[in-house]
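Q: what sequence does this backbone want?
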């Protein structure tokens, strides 16, 4: 299936479940880029460390996996600091997505992407930069946000 998808799409993004079935190992070892998305807790640190160690031992000449820290700063949750998480995995995060209950809740209630919400620039910009890096393109142009940006985006989507 992967070869068929590669013939029709320039990029394939897979959200893989936890666990170590053989098919998952094959997919991870044959991927060009691997992006690990983890929350800053002990279980994610352990699983992330195991995955990173496995990939580095099996793919010594390939690109190093990239790390995204997700739901960082969730209130009332004990979490591992960004510095400690990075040090334990031996890599700095390519992006850190701070938890913003209002922003994520509004997106879910409206059935929209988080990036389409007003005030999402601080979350969306690091992900946009990472997408440009993974695509092998030059640095993403800096977006200018204005009071009219949300309406212009809706008009572009409606007529684009």
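A:
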């Amino acid at each position: 299936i992967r070869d068929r998808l590669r013939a029709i799409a320039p990029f394939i993004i897979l959200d893989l479940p936890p666990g170590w079935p053989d098919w998952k190992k094959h997919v991870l070892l044959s991927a060009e880029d691997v992006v690990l998305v983890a929350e800053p807790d002990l279980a994610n640190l352990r699983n992330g460390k195991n995955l990173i160690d496995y990939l580095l031992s099996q793919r010594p000449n390939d690109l190093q996996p990239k790390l995204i820290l997700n739901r960082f700063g969730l209130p009332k949750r004990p979490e591992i600091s960004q510095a400690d998480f990075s040090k334990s995995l031996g890599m700095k995060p390519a992006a850190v997505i701070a938890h913003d209950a209002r922003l994520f809740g509004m997106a879910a209630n409206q059935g929209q992407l988080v990036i389409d919400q007003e005030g999402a620039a601080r979350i969306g910009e690091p992900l946009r930069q990472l997408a440009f890096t993974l695509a092998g393109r030059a640095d993403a142009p800096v977006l200018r946000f204005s009071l009219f940006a949300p309406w212009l985006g809706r008009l572009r989507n409606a007529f684009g």
